[in-house]
Design goal:
57% of the residues lie in helices and 5% in strands. With 137 residues, it is mainly α. It has one domain. It has a three-stranded antiparallel β-sheet with strand order 1-3-2. Strand 2 and strand 3 form a beta hairpin. The chain is elongated, with a radius of gyration of 19 Å. The N and C termini lie far apart (57 Å). The model has no long low-confidence stretch (mean pLDDT 89).
C-alpha cells in the first residue's frame, strides 16, 4: 500500500518559504505572523532579489550605470559611446541587457526596474537607484 502526503508552504518570498520549511523540519510551530513590511523594506527586498537573480555581467553593469545616472538626475542614452563601452553593435543587444532585470522585477515587484523615458533615455525610480547603489559595489 502506497501512502502519499503533500505539504504546501507559502510565503511572500523564497526566504520566507525556506524559513517555514526549516521550522516544519525542526518540529517548531509556525511563528506568529510577522509585522507587515514597510514600503521601504519591501522595495529593498525586491531590489536585492532582482540583483541576486541577474545573471549577465552586462545587465549588472547597466543596472548600476542607470542607477548612477538616475542619482545624478540624468538618464542613460543609447548612443555610440554607450554602444562602444558595452561592445554592442545594435540596439537589440541593449534590449537583451535590459530585459533580464526587468523580467525579474516584473515577477518579483510587478513593475519594471529600468524604464525608457519620452526622450529615449533609460532611468529608474530614484528610490530604486539609491538601493542599487547601496547594494552593489
Amino acid at each position: 500500500m502506497a501512502v502519499r502526503v503533500q505539504v504546501t508552504f507559502e510565503g511572500d518570498s523564497m526566504d520566507e518559504v525556506i524559513a517555514e520549511v526549516g521550522r516544519w523540519l525542526n518540529g517548531q510551530s509556525p511563528e506568529a505572523p510577522a509585522t507587515p513590511e514597510s514600503e521601504t523594506e519591501r522595495r529593498q527586498r525586491e531590489i536585492r532579489e532582482v540583483l541576486a537573480g541577474i545573471r549577465g555581467e552586462a545587465s549588472r553593469r547597466f543596472v548600476r550605470d542607470v542607477a548612477e545616472a538616475t542619482a545624478r538626475g540624468q538618464t542613460v542614452s543609447l548612443d555610440d559611446l554607450l554602444m562602444a563601452r558595452y561592445g554592442w553593435r545594435t540596439g537589440t543587444a541593449l534590449a537583451g541587457t535590459v530585459s533580464g532585470p526587468n523580467k525579474l522585477m516584473r515577477r518579483i515587484g510587478h513593475r519594471d526596474l529600468i524604464v525608457r523615458d519620452a526622450a529615449g533615455g533609460y532611468r529608474m525610480d530614484p528610490a530604486d537607484a539609491e538601493i542599487v547603489l547601496a547594494t552593489t559595489t
